[in-house]
Write a structure and sequence with these properties.
The protein has about 240 residues and is α/β, with parallel strands linked by helices. The chain is about 25% helix and about 25% strand. The chain has 7 helices and 11 strands. It has helices at about 10-15, 15-20, 25-35, 55-60, 80-90, 105-110, 205-220; strands spanning about 1-10, 40-45, 65-70, 95, 115-120, 125-130, 145, 150-155, 165-170, 175-185, 185-190. Strand 9 and strand 10 form a beta hairpin. Helix 5 crosses helix 6.
Length: about 240
């Protein structure tokens, strides 16, 4: 089983009738519901739980973390963000959705401001597949059509991704790197842009397919804390590595 933790601020759904009508049980539950299957086990956590619902022990038991945040990035404690960063370095996969580009964990992992241009005007978006052979976009045609989505635009101040799998184009003219893959330490990260809370983006089958594929792709095959051990030379009869 691939063990997934879906983390969500769970704030818009409580404050807005519009958002609550789309995601009555929260964005985290909507994602968990379409992910759960024979090979994927899903748990959820939200901002207002004790310690944001995240512990070092829980992350150690998580293969892939999915993070959705927007209006309360600053309320996530620094130590929680650092735990997520360290878990990714050790091999945990991570998917950051939509406005999570400005979340503390993502910015720690990227080491850059992760800023972009944006507007809320209900533009439509075509999310074009740029690498059709990649497993994350398996089952997707040339593009995903989103009738309405918050508009993001370049420049997007992230490090150059290892791969850009999806490219968004909006009816207003903007273009945006909508599906970016990174490696950090022993772990892998996928940033996926669609998912504004006021539109039913996570009910669209192709969006669900990309997230499900990403979970399976990012699930770790190797997980080990990155250390800096003192070592003896190869010829030492007492052994090579000194474990601290």
């Amino acid at each position: 089983m691939i063990r997934v933790l879906v983390w969500n601020e769970f704030c818009h759904e409580k404050k807005s009738d519009t958002v609550r009508a789309i995601y009555p049980n929260g964005i985290h539950r909507a994602i968990a519901d379409f992910l759960a299957c024979d090979d994927i086990e899903v748990r959820t956590a939200t901002l207002d739980e004790e310690h944001c619902g995240i512990t070092k022990e829980l992350l150690a038991e998580t293969d892939v973390l999915i993070w959705w945040g927007h209006m309360r990035h600053g309320d996530v404690p620094d130590d929680v963000a650092e735990m997520v960063r360290d878990a990714v370095h050790s091999g945990m996969g991570a998917i950051f959705l939509h406005s999570a580009h400005h979340s503390k964990p993502f910015k720690l992992l990227m080491g850059t401001p992760c800023s972009l241009t944006w507007r809320e005007s209900g533009d439509s978006e075509l999310v074009w597949v740029t690498e059709p052979a990649h497993p994350i976009v398996r089952g997707i045609d040339r593009a995903i059509f989103l009738p309405h989505e918050e508009t993001y635009g370049e420049p997007f101040s992230i490090p150059n991704p290892d791969r850009v799998l999806l490219l968004g184009s909006y009816s207003g003219g903007e273009a945006f790197r909508a599906g970016c893959l990174f490696s950090r330490g022993n772990g892998n990260i996928f940033y996926f842009q669609p998912g504004h809370e006021e539109f039913p983006t996570y009910h669209i089958p192709e969006v669900q397919t990309v997230i499900r594929n990403a979970v399976r792709f990012l699930a770790p095959t190797y997980r080990e804390e990155i250390r800096c051990p003192h070592v003896r030379h190869f010829g030492d009869p007492e052994g090579y590595v000194i474990k601290k």
